[in-house]
Design a protein that fits this description.
The complex is a heterodimer. By secondary structure, chain A is of the alpha/beta class. Chain A is built from 7 helices and 9 strands; from the N terminus they run αααβαββαβαβαββββ. In chain A, about 35% of the residues lie in helices and about 25% in strands. An 8-stranded mixed β-sheet of chain A has the order 4-2-5-6-1-7-8-9, sandwiched between helices. Chain A is globular, with a radius of gyration of 18 Å. In chain B, the strands form 5 sheets. Chain B has a 5-stranded mixed β-sheet. Chain B is about 35% helix and about 25% strand. In chain B, a hairpin with a 5-residue loop joins β7 and β8. Chain B has 3 domains: about 190 residues, Alpha-Beta Plaits; about 90 residues, 2-Layer Sandwich (Dna Ligase, domain 1), CATH 3.30.1490.100; about 100 residues, no CATH class. Chain B has 15 helices and 19 strands. Chain B is elongated. The chains are: A alpha/beta, B alpha+beta. β3 of chain A pairs antiparallel with β13 of chain B, so a sheet runs across the interface.
Chain lengths: ~210, ~450
């Protein structure tokens, strides 16, 4: 890199060198699916960040991807909040997946969007939860940015489930999840610190 | 050696305090204890007929009122109370003054019909007052002859014993005095003999002292009207801190408190702050008040704020892990403040835990409830992560079953026939299928009436 370029980067706060970001160690939380870990920049779910899961409909495989994370969180006695779940989380299936349902709590779905966002922000800031899972479709980027800051400050990961992809989302990771013949097809739409975006097929567990 | 006046409490500190109080009033320094019993025979009728609670409340109010005459007041439901008057004689300038004041106030202020009797023992005073005697007996030696003419109805006896006594020709207490106490105890039980001995002052007579229940009330008056909610927070903060100090000193915990906002003209706004468990941490109580306040619309500018708390708990709500040391058990405890804060704003119904329930009907095997306990493990792993609150009917064409697209069957059928005993019986064949768009689905064929296909769950 020549000197004038280096000078430019040092003096302008809006410019940074891409390889500094990408050189980071694999500090993600392992997803429990080897093929999914391989396509995520940190080797797993980004820590303390907002992850967007974009699916055409609820229940096309996105929850399966999170089962290992939920299992490890409840095993460490960390609470998982389900904010505005679209259907009933079915306890027998969760128990079968080895998740300790004593550490799950659902909030809503009959609460206003305002209340839901307040809940998410408080829960993230409190640092008391292991994971937040949120089903809210219409969130402006400003709100996601705010949640991203709260997740970072509260050191708590937050997964937003949405049906549509928002443009220029401030989330650390945008993952598109679809059903495929092989099982679950996951495609990275955006990931902080990645040069190229890949996709992976994850077989259905069981 | 002075006789103990009464056993007041199981806790040493309180007993000590009462002794101290008695010393101050001179009871145990040679001053004779005199017990003034007041019986209100028509209390129930005078307050509110058929209303037990109103009667109890009135009796408690009277006891609180009687505390001005003596530090020792004891309630004897349904319609009597006792107070120790001996120690207050000097203060009021004679026993007659105390008796007259009580008589005047009961008639004029409280408007009750009453009897009052004063003797050296609580039991004898109560017996006499209940028997309708307005008497003063200052010497313990006279008790025997004074109590003699009372009928045996004044004794706490069951009907069987009373009939037994009647059969033996015992009508009044004097008849009992004549019988040897050993024989009496053998035939009618030691309780009777104990009671008689307590009446005569031969045995100590433990009483429960009445205490005014704790209540917290504090107020902040503003010299100017405050319109902004943010500006009210310091005042609320002071009040909550005051409440916490009060709880700390009294060794109490609270589960609900109220904050009132007064305006110059508009009706008062009340915030009810309820908690999920008894606590007294200032930060915690303040957080909830703030949360609640931010959700409340105040009518206009506020001139006065008050805080009241009336229900308290003595127990410290602490659950500790038996096998501590792993360092993990603390984390799940710590979520309580967050859940408290959430339920204050969203309402307790918005928060639900997830539990399993031993029932083969899928919709009953998962119950949302506040109690957190894991039920038995379900039979196999062919269960979806999402259950639809209400099964959704599927399109049934000639070539297959359609949800978002045609469903391919993967597993099944799994027949579930159960629930015939409670009129919610089911007779279904469950299948696991895949839909190219919707993913893995859990569907069933209803075999009971209409032979239709339904979507019941999504594997997520």
């Amino acid at each position: 890199m020549n000197n004038s370029l280096r000078e430019l980067i040092r003096n302008n706060p809006h410019l940074w060198s891409g390889d500094e970001v990408c050189q980071g160690k694999p500090d993600g939380i392992p997803t429990g699916h080897a093929s999914l870990d391989a396509i995520l920049p940190g080797g797993g779910w980004p820590k303390n960040a907002v992850v967007e899961m974009i699916t055409p409909h609820w229940g096309t495989g996105e929850l399966q991807l999170l089962l290992p994370l939920m299992k490890s969180m409840t095993r460490r006695r960390r609470w998982i909040l389900w904010v505005c779940p679209p259907y009933i989380p079915y306890a027998p299936a969760l128990v079968n997946a080895d998740i300790d349902i004593n550490f799950l709590m659902t909030i809503g779905p009959n609460i206003s969007c305002r209340d839901a966002l307040w809940t998410i922000e408080k829960a993230l800031q409190s640092q008391r939860c292991g994971l937040l899972m949120v089903w809210l479709n219409h969130l402006p980027n400003g709100v996601i940015r705010r949640l991203q800051l709260a997740a970072d400050a509260g050191k708590t990961p937050c997964v937003l489930f949405r049906n549509q992809r928002g443009k220029n989302s401030p989330a650390a990771l945008q993952l598109q999840v679809k059903h495929s013949d092989q099982g679950i097809h996951a495609r990275v739409l955006k990931a902080r610190g990645a040069h190229q975006y890949h996709s992976a097929d994850i077989p259905y567990p069981g | 050696m002075p006789r103990p006046i009464s056993a007041l409490s199981f806790r040493d500190s309180l007993l000590y305090r009462e002794e101290e109080a008695c010393n101050k009033t001179g009871t145990s320094t040679g001053q004779q204890a005199l017990w003034l019993a007041v019986c209100l025979p028509r209390l129930a009728l005078e307050v509110h007929p058929h209303n037990e609670i109103a009667r109890e409340k009135r009796l408690e109010a009277l006891a609180a009122w009687a505390l001005q005459f003596s530090p020792l007041v004891s309630l004897h439901p349904p319609c009597s109370f006792l107070l120790e008057a001996g120690g207050s004689i000097n203060y009021f300038g004679g026993l007659a003054a105390i008796r007259d004041t009580i008589a005047r106030e009961l008639t004029e202020r409280w408007k009750h019909v009453f009897y009052q009797a004063t003797t050296p023992t609580p039991t004898a005073s109560l017996m006499l007052a209940r028997a309708g005697c307005n008497l003063l007996v200052e010497r313990g030696a006279d008790l025997r002859s004074v109590l003699g003419p009372l009928g045996i109805e004044v004794l706490p006896l069951d009907d069987k014993r009373r009939q037994q006594l009647n059969k033996t020709g015992v009508r009044i207490l004097r008849d009992l005095w004549r019988l040897p106490s050993g024989e009496l105890a053998r035939r009618f039980g030691t309780d009777l003999v104990t009671h008689l001995d307590q009446a005569l002052g031969k045995l100590p007579d433990p009483l429960n002292a009445y205490r005014i229940p704790p209540r917290f009330f504090d107020t902040r008056e503003f010299s100017f009207e405050i319109g902004e909610q943010q500006s009210l927070l310091p005042a609320v903060h002071e009040l909550v801190t005051g409440l916490c100090d009060f709880l700390q000193k009294q060794d109490l915990y609270t589960m609900d408190y109220q904050v009132h906002f007064y305006y110059r003209e508009d009706p008062v706004t009340v915030l009810h702050i309820g908690l999920r468990q008894p606590i007294r941490q200032p930060g915690y109580l303040m957080l909830l008040a703030e949360t609640k306040l931010s959700r409340t619309k105040l009518a206009t500018a506020v001139v006065r704020v008050t805080l009241t708390a009336e229900r308290f708990y003595r127990v410290a709500p602490r659950t500790r892990c038996l096998f501590s040391g792993s360092g993990l058990e603390q984390e799940d405890q710590d979520i309580a403040p967050l859940l408290e804060q959430l339920s204050t704003r969203l309402g307790a119904a918005a928060l639900e835990s997830i539990t399993t329930h031993a029932d083969h009907r899928p919709e009953y095997a998962c119950r949302a409830g506040v109690s957190v306990s894991a039920g038995p493990a379900p039979p196999d792993n062919r269960r979806p992560l999402w259950l639809l609150p209400k099964p959704r009917e599927l399109l049934n064409k000639d070539d297959g079953i359609y949800y978002r697209s045609r469903i391919h069957f993967l597993m099944g059928p799994e027949r579930i026939v159960t629930g015939w005993w409670d009129n919610h019986g089911i007779h279904r064949d469950y299948y696991v299928g895949t839909d190219d768009i919707a993913g893995r689905v859990w569907i069933y064929h209803d075999l009971t009436t209409r032979q239709k296909w339904y979507l019941h769950g999504l594997f997520g």
